[in-house]
Every structure is written in structure tokens, then in C-alpha cells.
Specification:
The protein contains eleven helices and eleven strands. It has about 270 residues and is an alpha/beta fold.
Length: about 270
Amino acid sequence: MRMLTQRRWKELARLHQRKYREALGQYLAEGVRLLKAALDARAPLVEVLVTGAARSRPEVQALLARVSVPVYEVAAREMARLSEVETSQGVLAVLRLQWQSEDHLLRCRRILALDGLQDPGNAGTILRAAAWFGVEAVVAGAGTVDLYNPKVVRAAMGGHWEVALVRTRNLPRLLDLLQQHDFVCYGADLTGLPAPQWQPRQPAVLVLGSEAHGLQPAVQERLTARVTVPGVPGRYATESLNVAMAATVLLYEWLGRGREQKVTGNS
């Protein structure tokens, strides 16, 4: 059985911090479902850690049989040091970071951009929804949470391996570039057009801002249109949807409704 060196243990423990993920070019994905998703998507695995108890489970054995990288059996207490969940499933995958260049976006038609979105749970849920509805790329603008943060990875449930991930220090400049290549830029905003009335065109980019600050002025200046998810009039206890919930509704209006109509029309 392979044994991890002390040096490697230290490296893995540091992958919870963004600067070390960047330095090593690696990140963590925890749990049985994420390992399966990574294998199904042929994600760039580096190694897999598993406890003895987890390894004895038939579903884990089946997954490990598909793994072509080193597998290390570790003690439960050692796994707990690397885990970020209260009850670990005893399975941890290490993968390589996969950032695409901005030029990659010019080969896409459906792009989602995050403008200063800082909550990792929301970011991960948005990635999951983006993958589900067929978004081709997600852009992380300045001030956005690291998309390889363990909490983002856990919430995305495999979304990282279904969409291209791009980061930019200057989202307004990137929107200018996309518009030069015939992209339409939409932004989620409380004062926007109600989503049911939205008739988005492609290629397009939909920009989501943080709940606290919304879209930065320079981004707003570059929008072709703003769109919102309307609530029921007269209900004010809930001020608004959180950004992940709003994003899911808007993605359905943009990419899901047309697909549903095509299926209905072919039936």
C-alpha cells in the first residue's frame, strides 16, 4: 500500500488556502459523489486518498477500480485533518487546476460572468446550475471567490468539470472584447426587465453581481439589457432571492425554456 510522505501531507493540508492552490496548481474534491463525477468527466486527477473503512464499501471499490492515478489509504484521523465536513465519507481526490484563457471565450456562445460574488456556497450552486443548463464557460471577475475553494467545489457537485473556468482582473474590458465579437451582454438587476419577458439572443454573456453590492458601475455601462426575477406583488417579508436562486431562474429562462419547448414540440 502506498504511503504519503510527510512533505506531501503538508502540501495537501495547505490546499485549503488559495495561495497554495495557485502555487501547486492543485485542489481538493471531497466525497464519493465528487470522485464519481470527476471520473465520469475525465477530470485531471492527481491522486486519491481513502480510509480503510471507505475502501471496504462496494461503491468505493467500484470507483477505485476506475482510478488510474496513485491511491493512498490513510487513517480516519488523518483524513479528518484534511476534511472540511463534519462527517467525512473517507474519500478525497486531488486534482489539477484548469483555468482557460480569455481567448477561449470567443469559441463559446453561452457565458456566465461573476462580478465580485464572494459567497462560496452561492458560487458553487451557480456553477452547478450553469453546468445543468449548458453554459459553456464561467468567468470569475475581480473580487470573486476562488472557484477552486473547497466549499465552492463541494457545492458545485461536479460543475467544475462540465464548464470552462476563466478568470479576469478586468471584467469591463473583457465585456468590451466579447461585444466586439457580437456578444450581447445581459446583467441581473432588481430594476431589470422581468425574466418572463426576456428574449435573450446568442452569443451572450449573463453577468451576476454580489448580493451586497450588485454589479459595478463599469459593468452596468456595458450591458445591453438588465433582467430580474419578479416576485409576487404585495409580499415584502423576503426582500429578494439570493443570487444563486436568481441565477438558476434566469438560466432556465435563458437556456432551459427554449430546450423545453423544443422537446414539447417534438413530442
